[in-house]
Design goal:
The chain is α+β, with helices and mostly antiparallel strands. Helix content is 43%, strand content 14%. The chain has five helices and three strands. Strands 1-3-2 form a three-stranded antiparallel sheet. β2 and β3 form a beta hairpin. The N and C termini lie far apart (59 Å).
Length: 102
């Protein structure tokens, strides 16, 4: 038997958010934010995270209203991606300058 991966489907495991981010946003939202290192649609994220599209859509809506992700139409799909604020939060603030002495 020969098997080939389905074209257009990602087989990579979902990105794992930090424990701190999961405590702040909740594990589902943190996982979705971490997964948006590359733009993805609701359907792609649902398949990758083994969630219903409605659940993913709800959490992406919260992240969108919080300014952590943005969305743009691409053909018949809507792709979500992290905003600079979402990337900073997802990366644990790496590359940001901290005010004060610590």
């Amino acid at each position: 038997m020969v098997a080939f991966p389905v074209r257009g489907r990602t087989t990579a495991a979902p990105a794992t958010p930090s424990a701190e981010l999961a405590r702040l946003l909740g594990p589902t939202r943190a996982g979705l934010l971490a997964a948006l290192a590359r733009p993805a649609s609701t359907g792609e994220l649902a398949a990758r995270h083994f969630l219903s599209p409605a659940t993913v859509s709800y959490h992406l809506g919260v992240l969108y209203r919080s300014g952590l992700v943005s969305r743009a139409r691409s053909g018949r799909s809507v792709l979500y991606h992290r905003t600079p604020a979402g990337s900073r939060l997802s990366n644990g603030g790496e590359g940001t300058r901290r005010e004060g002495g610590a």
